[in-house]
Specification:
heterodimer, A: alpha+beta, Beta-lactamase, six-stranded mixed β-sheet, 17 helices, 24 strands, 22% strand, B: 15 helices, 69% helix, globular
């Protein structure tokens, strides 16, 4: 009998070996597959127990903080609400909602970036604490943008050209990130309550695009600021007559500088055609067109800029594109206010485009900086000397051209106006709940910086201007933004 | 060194385990637990010491490692239950340990000569069958997850299969001791030795009974437990592997038939094969608990997430993420908290306990003792295999208690009777012949 007992015992050993092998399968060999299983909510549940770090403005004002909720969980609240909602976003794991900086800096905010706090926290029962994230956003500038955009549909983006730090990113309408269940205003219902016009709007840039064309023309050596053109009105462009504003014709010998100063469409159509689509294409890409902006913000909440045709982005070299009209910022061009801020920031920074940044550093719960988010160069779009030439041309715009309302004494502002007919149904906010049409509403732009103190570059876009001009409506807003932000920086 | 001194020293790991475990849980949740909860751990240690002194007096020759191994398993369970449910279940469990140890002592005193049990074998068998049938009595039985495994008495829920398993093993050991020669003999037909029908008949009847239990209880897991013990005892009694193979084929066939004809068994098999199928996952009594047990084990990894870190409830709610964490699913909580090492440690402890049972069987001097020790050890082995294998998806899941570890009184009481019997067998086997 003892022989059978031994044999039976070996069967038992085998059974237990089987159990250990299977346990190893789930704990070790297939563990990562199980961790990533679609039904596995453990990571998400663990995140509920994390006390997230704060999101702070550049001056330390709290934009997002974690407060105690039921049963040892935490939830995020946003003391500034709608003022910073578009930039900061929200974190609402119960509904699986996350957006904005909350999303892009989620790793830091949950403390995954610096583990030491979490290891300690798990033993003594205190919650896992995340790191705090400092943004580049300026509460005063943000509040001013809200005030200046009150009652309007539009967006303001202000960037420090030398670092790419985004000081202001505000668009109207906005939403309250403390109450995501609030009903959506009718005019944004088609794009969602949380639509951020500054990064998601697809709007015709109008004459502000002439800055891109000018940079391409000058830096490629094809033209100089003193190159001359005739500006008849109308001019046949792509077989269709193009009129200057007020149907004014300009004599032969008009310089490129004058053409920019007075925003002469029929000359810029010729400039664009002279420079040629392939060169325009190259410079657009150098400025960041055709890419999701390289900003620390969720890609799903940003839109590339470029020629948008039949529902997708196509290169300007596409034969269907009207290069002449594109050169004056119409045709099929659709851009975001953020993109135009990047364009003007590159010019302000001697032609060097920095990647826009919403966050500057990550700080742990002891107040130590654990990560500094360094400025990153995106591209040297043009030579510094060309950038200075273009800046000089832009100075004329403010001194004596279409942007004189921005000519605040002592600030030496330079800029470019843009007044575009909104396409039939651009990606943007519907004014009065209808697709804006060119007859009723125009798109008014002003992009600007100070020639003597180029520490702030601003793009202002207004979508609901009836037959108005960028120089009339957007320029004063841009000027006041720059004035305030520069005064604060001193 | 004398056996009893070995036993005393071997209780040290259990003491350390329970002290460290209770201290860890208490420190972690000091704001929710009262200091008095630490007493349950201390009381438990006192009980172990008392039991040791009792064994020292009554069973001086018994295997010195059986009781300490049981103590380690019980500590493991008590600490896990304390961690899962806090003071409430731990106190109840500790109380069951008190009653269990009293029953343990009573068994040793009453059945000092356990061979007297043979006189009552038909009574024991009948009693076991009645116990197994009780859950089907209307108004008494609890229907849970498609199976009838428990009965409700005022104040307590009672799991009859736990007691029935001890009874059935006693009966089988005695019955097969008598018939082993006849079963092993018989005429050769087609190269196989077929035992005389007179002796084979009851064996077939046993197989039928196991099948019937399967249908009646509706639970493959506990049937497997009985059937495993039956095959083990038959094999050791007759030394004929053909019985085992025939038996396994027959059980497989029966199970296959049931799986294809009883919906809830088929559902268990589907859950086992496809726990991550979204339809099964969200079905009532579907694969939700199995899938989340897997996720908890994966989260445990090699060394575990740390004591108390496995999520049992969906945070912010009282909805279970791992249903029945202190009973059916305790193995997944152990693995989640303590990782593969903790889980393997537990399994190795079981294996050591079972090996001591087998050792007692080998040392035993009479066939009944041998068969009884083998049967009792095997029933524990199969029970661990069924529940751990179910949680770890080696086999379809069925809920049987993880012996000594899972929360539940019936299981503790029955298993302490089982341990008492093993110690009695071992004491008798190791007693110097002059004493006998």
């Amino acid at each position: 009998m003892n022989r059978s007992i031994l044999r039976l015992f070996s069967v038992v050993v085998l059974m237990f070996a089987l159990l250990i092998v299977w346990a190893s399968r789930w704990t070790v060999f297939s563990a990562s597959a199980l961790d990533h299983n679609r039904l596995n909510q453990l990571g998400f549940y663990a995140s509920l127990k994390v006390r997230r770090g704060e999101i702070l403005a550049d001056n330390g004002a709290v934009l997002a903080r974690s407060v105690k909720a039921a049963n040892g969980t935490w939830r995020s609240v946003y003391p500034q609400g709608s003022l910073f909602a578009q930039a900061v976003g929200y974190y609402n794991p119960q509904e699986n909602q996350i957006a904005g900086i909350e999303e892009t800096r989620n790793r830091a905010l949950t403390g995954l970036q610096s583990r030491q706090a979490s290891l300690f926290g798990s033993f003594n029962g205190t919650p896992q604490v995340g790191d705090s994230v400092y943004t580049t956003l300026d509460p005063k500038g943000q509040a001013l943008a809200r005030k200046l955009l009150a009652g309007r549909v539009g967006a303001v983006v202000a960037i420090v050209p030398q670092t790419g730090a985004v000081k202001v990113m505000y668009s109207n309408p906005t939403y309250n990130d403390n109450n995501l269940a609030a009903p959506c205003p009718a005019n944004v219902a088609h794009v969602g309550c949380q639509f951020n016009l500054a990064t998601q709007g697809g709007l015709p840039p109008g004459s502000t695009f002439k800055l891109v064309v000018t940079a391409a023309a000058l830096n490629s050596g094809k033209l100089t600021p003193n190159s001359t053109f005739a500006g008849p009105s109308p001019l046949l462009v792509d077989g269709i007559p193009l009129h200057n504003d007020g149907n004014v014709s300009y004599p032969p010998g008009t310089t490129l500088t004058t053409a920019l100063t007075d925003s002469i469409d029929t000359i810029y159509a010729q400039v664009g055609l002279r420079v040629g689509a392939p060169t325009l294409e190259e410079y657009m890409k150098r400025f960041g067109f055709y890419s999701v902006p390289p900003m620390d913000y969720p890609a799903a909440q940003m839109r590339p800029s470029g020629e948008f045709y039949n529902g997708s982005f196509v290169p300007i070299t596409n034969p269907n594109m009207d290069v002449g009209r594109s050169s004056i910022g119409q045709g099929d061009l659709e851009v975001t206010p953020l993109q135009m801020a990047m364009v003007v920031a590159a010019i302000a920074n001697n032609g060097k485009l920095m990647e826009p940044r919403l966050t500057s550093r990550v700080v742990n719960s002891d107040g130590e900086t654990v990560e500094t988010i360094k400025p990153q160069e995106y591209d040297q779009v043009m030579r510094p000397q060309i950038a200075q030439e273009e800046t000089q041309m832009m100075r004329h715009v403010v001194e004596s051209g279409t942007g004189t309302l921005a000519n605040i004494p002592g600030l030496n502002l330079v800029g470019k106006t843009g007044s575009a007919s909104l396409g039939a149904c651009v990606t943007g906010v519907r004014v009065n709940n209808v697709c804006p049409g060119g007859e009723t509403y125009d798109d008014a732009w002003f992009v600007s910086f100070s020639q003597s103190d180029p520490k702030i570059a601003v793009a202002v876009e207004l979508s609901d201007i009836p037959g108005g001009y960028g120089g009339t409506y957007a320029a004063p807003i841009a000027a006041e933004m720059i004035k305030t932000l520069l005064a604060e920086g001193q | 060194m004398r056996a009893r001194n070995w036993e005393l020293i071997s209780l040290v790991p259990a003491a350390l385990l329970v002290s460290a475990g209770f201290a860890a849980v208490y420190i972690q949740r000091a704001n929710q637990l009262e200091t008095v909860s630490l007493i349950y751990g201390a009381v438990f240690l006192g009980l172990c010491l008392g039991a040791h002194i009792f064994i020292r007096v009554t069973l001086p020759h018994a295997d010195p490692f059986i009781f300490p191994l049981v103590a380690v398993l019980a500590c493991y369970g008590l600490v896990m239950i304390y961690r899962i449910d806090g003071a409430t279940e731990a106190r109840v469990q500790a109380q069951w340990f008190v009653i269990g140890l009293l029953l343990f002592a009573a068994t040793i005193v009453w059945f000092r000569d356990y061979r007297r049990l043979e006189n009552y074998r038909y009574l024991i068998m009948t009693g076991s069958v009645v116990l197994l049938l009780l859950p089907r009595v209307p108004g008494l039985g609890v229907y849970s997850g498609g199976a009838y495994l428990a009965i409700h008495l005022p104040g307590i829920t009672f799991q009859p299969p736990e007691f029935a398993k001890v009874g059935v093993v006693i009966f089988l050991s005695s019955y097969l001791r008598d018939h082993r020669q006849a079963l092993a003999s018989g005429r050769r037909i087609l190269g196989y030795r077929i035992p005389p029908l007179k002796h084979l008949g009851p064996l077939l009847a046993l197989w039928g009974a196991a099948m019937l239990a399967l249908v009646v209880i509706g639970d493959i897991g506990s049937s497997l437990m009985f059937y495993g013990a039956l095959l083990a005892i038959v094999y050791v009694a007759t030394d004929r592997i053909s019985f085992v193979i025939f038996g396994m084929l027959a059980f497989g066939l029966g199970s296959w038939f049931l799986a294809t004809h009883i919906p809830h068994i088929d559902a268990r098999i589907q859950d086992w094969l496809h726990p991550f199928n979204p339809a099964l996952y969200s079905a009532p009594l579907g694969s939700y608990q199995l899938a989340n047990a897997q996720f908890a084990m994966a989260a445990g990894g090699l060394f575990g997430q740390g004591f108390g870190q496995t999520l049992l409830y969906i945070p912010g709610t009282t909805n279970a993420l791992i249903p029945f964490p202190s009973t059916d699913m305790i193995f997944s909580v152990i693995t989640g908290d303590l990782g593969l090492f903790g889980a393997a440690g537990l399994l190795v402890t079981y294996l050591l306990f079972i090996s001591r049972g087998f050792k007692a069987a080998m040392l035993a001097r009479d066939s009944f003792s041998k068969l009884l020790a083998v049967g009792l050890s095997t029933v524990i082995a199969v029970q661990v295999f069924v529940i751990v294998g179910g949680v770890a998806r080696v086999i379809p899941f069925t809920g049987v208690p993880l012996p000594f570890v899972a929360y539940g009184g019936s299981s503790i009481l029955a298993n302490f009777v089982l341990v008492a019997l093993l110690l009695l067998i071992s004491d008798r086997a190791r007693r110097p012949l002059s004493d006998a």
